[in-house]
Design goal:
The chain is built from 4 helices and no strands. By secondary structure, it is an all-alpha fold. The protein has 2 domains: 76 residues; 36 residues. The radius of gyration is 29 Å and the shape is rod-shaped.
């Protein structure tokens, strides 16, 4: 599962880097051909990067939701659920230890 997440992250990172490089090349080509002014090139560049970031955020959101759904389908607990259960187990373990260490005289006193 961790390998799948790592692969997905690396694919997303590779796509982002590749897209940025393509945007750079595209804007540089337009500028070199004189089709845009330097100011227009900068505005276009910023606009394309913003659009790319928005698309990436949407993709990340959909991916996270899909992962939550898959984890739920596979009955995998979330980290928060795991931590909550771990804390409950620790409390119960302490109570068991306390009960096991009660002296026999205390048991008799408590029973009376």
């Amino acid at each position: 599962m961790a390998n799948l997440l790592k692969t997905g992250f690396l694919l997303g990172l590779g796509a982002a880097v590749s897209s940025k490089e393509r945007v750079d090349k595209y804007v540089d080509d337009l500028l070199a051909k004189g089709k845009v002014t330097p100011k227009e090139a900068d505005e276009l560049y910023q606009s394309l990067l913003k659009k790319g970031e928005e698309t990436e955020e949407q993709w990340n959101s959909r991916t996270k939701e899909k992962m939550r759904s898959v984890m739920e389908d596979l009955n995998i607990v979330s980290r928060d659920e795991f931590i909550g259960l771990k804390e409950k187990v620790e409390i119960l373990e302490k109570k068991i230890i306390e009960l096991e260490t009660v002296k026999p005289e205390q048991k008799n006193d408590e029973q009376e």
